[in-house]
TrEMBL record:
Coiled-coil blocks: none
Domain DUF1330: 2-93
Identification of the protein by name: DUF1330 domain-containing protein
Pfam families documented for this protein: DUF1330
SUPFAM superfamilies: Dimeric alpha+beta barrel
InterPro entries given in the database record: Dimeric_a/b-barrel, DUF1330
Organism: Sulfitobacter porphyrae
Amino acid sequence: MPALWIAHVHVTDAEAYGRYAKLAGPAIAAHGGAFVARGGRYVTLEGTERERHVVARFPSVEAAESCYRSPAYQEALDHARGASERDLIIVETTE
């Protein structure tokens, strides 16, 4: 079953987070991920306000998790640590 990678992000260091984004995109694509939403307009109805929201579709939960644990994504993530506050989940779709 396909899966969605959903991140809610508050960026605290835009320069460092920009380095993360440049590396994360190719790592996500290498694992079959494709962005459905990346930034853009949003409305928060409940929960913690975060100004950046990213959704990527993967072929499976396993593919998304493999991406997260990959050396390429971990290299990207090194730039996000300390430059953002993030929540990230992977959820299987019903399709």
